[in-house]
Amino acid sequence: MAASEKTHNQRKVMSRADLTGRLVSRLRNEEAVVGGIGWTNFELWGAGARPQNFYMLGSMGLAFPIALGVAIAQPKRKVIGLEGDGSLLMQVGALGTIASRNQKNLVMVVWDNGAYQITGGQPSTSATVVDLVGLARASGIEKAYWADDEDEFEALFERALAEDGPFFIAAKIDASRPAQTTHRDPVHIRERFMRGLGVRKDPHAA
Amino acid sequence: MNSVQRAWHEIVRDVLKENEVRLVTYVPDNVLNPLIKALHADPFFTTFCCTREEEAVGIATGAWMGGMLGVVLMQTSGFATLPNVLASLAVPYQIPLLMIISERGTLGEFNLGQAMVCRTMRPALDSMGIENHTLRRLDEVEFIVDRTINQAVSTQAPAALILNALLTGGKVEKRKGN
Asked: Complex ipTM, two decimals?
């Protein structure tokens, strides 16, 4: 490591709400977004209604695998997996699977506050020893970056939408409570998502 | 119907193909190996290995929502890692998640760990109301696999096909001494 390079926990802590809003506002081509569980999920819900958003209600750690499946089925669409640090740490092997498939239309975004926030803020290992971008790089994801501030996040995310991936972007975020809670109706979430992806349409609309 | 008798794994491959099951995610298993090889060899299928069965289920779920039907291959012990994701993803979101499970732990099992985990499989499936069938006879494979895929898709529900040692031969170890 170069002497000038920061260690992962010396980075600017940004607002989860603000960054999620910036992410959603950059989506212009009906990109799919798969939201992992916890406050990451609530924040995505609060950032506005999009038919191409999928919200998990459990299955902790599966945001990236689900996003990978969507990306395989729809290779012309950019697919974004939005995950928290605790969830990613639960399913680390998925990074290697994604790297080995070299899934070009997949973008992974991680909000890292170093805590299991929804269960009471217990520290995760990324609060101390684990560098999530280092983990992604060691798993074979070459385009893996820390966003050091809001402008860098937007620039990296724009690049990820324009270039071939797989991309992995992580940001250190705060522990603020999201303003809203995801509406927990799994069938409605899934059906709206499938219609948003053009897989299904309203049966009356034929 | 072919006049030449097909092996169980050839029948499974052909029925998957006839039903447009294009994605295969798996965690490796000895008994499943001929099926895994046959699927890798056929470019109709997108076939790859995952690090965990949960991950394989997540990928198949995403693919189906994106318009591509898939199947997850695993061993009994791998299935035992799945109840959380079945109960919080596949069942409540009404996903036609197809699972093919090679059955270890019975009919000559040599590893007590496998024998114990096998006893949890059907109760776990039944407790979640997941349709499951055990394949024992070669002449029933085509019918059961075909009908199970059709029902899973039509009713939007997960389904499990358990490959018994009577069909596959299973995995055995010669006992030495006492």
From this structure: 0.96
